[in-house]
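User: Hello, beginner here. Can you help me understand these amino acid letters and fold codes? It all follows right here:
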Amino acid sequence: MRGKKKPKRPSMVREIDMHGLRVEEMLPRLDQFLSDAMLQGVPEVRIIHGHGTGALRKAIHQRLSVIGIRQFRLGEPGQTPGGDGVTIVSL
């Protein structure tokens, strides 16, 4: 008899692409993404929101503040992939 195979563990969630979504569509996805990342013990995640009108970025930053995430920042143009169209969150 062969040894038992370990069940596959889901890969760690580190990034989510939200650009092109409406705020109403994005918020539940953001909440689930952050919850999954915290449960998996991921120390830092990236939220791609793009540039556009800035509505997604604003809504994401507002939601992060409301749920108690204190450390987040925009990516830096030329230094962070996605530049300031990405928010980097420390969990």
Summary: The chain has a mean pLDDT of 90.
